[in-house]
Amino acid sequence: MERSLMKGNEALAEAAIRCGCKCFFGYPITPQTELSAYMAKRMEKSGGVFLQAESEIAAINMVLGAASTGVRAMTSSSSPGVSLKAEGISYMAGSDLPAVIINVQRGGPGLGSIQPAQSDYFQATKAMGHGDFHIIVYAPCSVQEMVDTVTLAFDKADEYRTPVMILADGLLGQMMEPVTFPEPKTELPDKSDWAACGHKNKREHHIINSLFLDAPLLEAKVLERFERYKAIEENETDAELYMCEGAELVITAYGASARVAKSAVTKARSEGIKAGLFRPKTLWPFPVKELAEATKDAKHILDVEMSMGQMIYDVKLATECRIPTTFFGRTGGVIPTPAEVYDEIKKLTGGAQ
Amino acid sequence: MAVVFDRPKSLLDVSTHFCPGCGHGIVHRLVCEVLDEMGVIGDTIGVVPVGCSVMSYNYFGCDVIEAPHGRAPAVATGAKRVNPDKIVFTYQGDGDLAAIGTAETVHVGTRGENIVIIFINNTTYGMTGGQMAPTTLPGQVTQTTPFGRNTDTAGFPIRICEMLSTLSGVALAQRVAIDSVPHIREAKKAIRKAFDNQVAKRGLSIVEVLSTCPTNWGLSPDKSMDFVRKQMIPYYPLGIYKDKAAEEEAAK
Amino acid sequence: MEKMQVRFERCKGCGLCVTVCPKKLVAIQKEKRNEKGYFTAICTDQDACISCMMCAMMCPDCAIKIEK
Q1: A242, A313, A342, B146: least CB-packed within 10 angstroms?
Q2: Domain spans of chain B?
Q3: pLDDT digit string, tens, across residues A140-191
Q4: ipTM greater than 0.90, yes or no?
Q5: In what order do the strands lie in the sheet with A99-105?
Q6: pTM listed for this prediction
Q7: Does B9 touch chain A if contact means CB atoms closer than 8 Å?
Q8: Would an 8 Å CB–CB cutoff place B133 in contact with chain A?
Q9: Domain that holds residue A330
């Protein structure tokens, strides 16, 4: 398979086309815009639909419309734009609609900055919109992993009939790395049993809807959905454990900050410091079992994020606060350096024993 | 004796939740009569928004998608773009289309999206108990204009057909009413023209239907029809504000 | 031989049919309420009915079937 050097944003777009995404609805926002621009060039040529909507709200609702008819659909944006999509995503969860939403995070809150950040973790994993629902949230940390994650995201979205988010950031979106793409996917899942694509007078009409004025009926719908969420939690977690064997200090970090932490851990290990890195690839469902494995020898956990610390809550929850956990992070779009993380490691471990 | 008038097949045989005398029921029937006559119900996808028509997925016999408030045109765009051979229509109220959904409405017009919009203008938010809508008339009393709509503070009602007629992607912008049987016949013709436009891929067709809300107007069904006739039609003149098909015909 | 047939359970007694009948034949009967509690429309003189369908076209609930 051909290897090409590609920008993260564009690789995400190409990957989506390769795995049968038939329509993309975008809206310009730094640092994600190349994804839309790439779709504008490639989507139509590959038989799909590209449309720049009048707002991120309109874009997510176009995804809702397309997904309702059984087609693989995607949209992407960055932090403020993703906030605008919240209602649409809640409706899609409430209507059991599969779709992929990409958030190339930037500094926040408000207009924030255009540099990379991870301060939308809570939004993505805890409260993407109103009501009881979850979305699967993936956190790739390289261009190749972003490509692989797109395929996974579409498959899991269809399998569990739920929106899926890929939580990237400006660094991953803007950097270039060599990447290979999967062969174009031709046979796509058949959704004619629920899709609203015209009944051809051959079946009952299908309704795509999230309104249930009969409260017990809504409750039953939510309970059924939470059965699926339970299955997701049991089967879909994933994480990378790097040098965690015998690690007394384990760093927890995802996405771009995990790359920084990995350099620091590698340096520390080379000096005999027993450090390791736990990198969740799925943020929801949070990889609890994998974290337990990673921290079985840990005396201390250092959580590193490009925010004021959001995943740290899940780390403490997963370890039931049994292991002292401290935080190091930069926010506002400032990227922590390996040296800074290395200094934190030294502080916590008092250097090599 | 032969049956000369009965419920259209595309309209499911259920009782509706609409209030007695509400115009929604009439327009639902007209849309379904047109779908029957065109024989397209099996290839039609309806999009209903938030509002009194939110539960119309129980009444329209085609596949139906329920859209967030104001977003039906965007949902319809998504559905139509990936299913260009299907008939896609939205059925929206004035709060949905002309307040929260104004941007979506304007942009399906600018894009010339090949869908049909059935727009019910009854000057109020019916489902939530009769609040001021963008189409509430000057001086009209509503739950949120208890002393009558004061245009100094609450602004002026929007004339959607006139506004959209300026957009080149609009194929049909026509305002009709259901206050009398002749007007109902006219409304049906307009709805048919809208769906014919979609088949002919002419762009966006919007039919604005002046309709009643007896419950929230505090009027009897009959008096509500008078309100349409005497108050609404003067402010919202019936007629065709854009008709590409006619322009094409004239150009021949 | 009923030209104007009202579906008793569907009628909401809104009276719009009464207002449009050119022959003034339609009325709201007050003897019996339907399941929803409405008094319903009836045709007071089936023979005089000309099956013009205007009542049916004005009915918001498809509660009227016309035969000719």
Answers
A1: B146
A2: 24-251
A3: 999 999 999 999 999 999 999 999 999 999 999 999 999 999 999 888 999 9
A4: yes
A5: A49-52, A23-26, A73-77, A99-105, A163-169, A136-138, A282-284
A6: 0.97
A7: no
A8: no
A9: 239-349
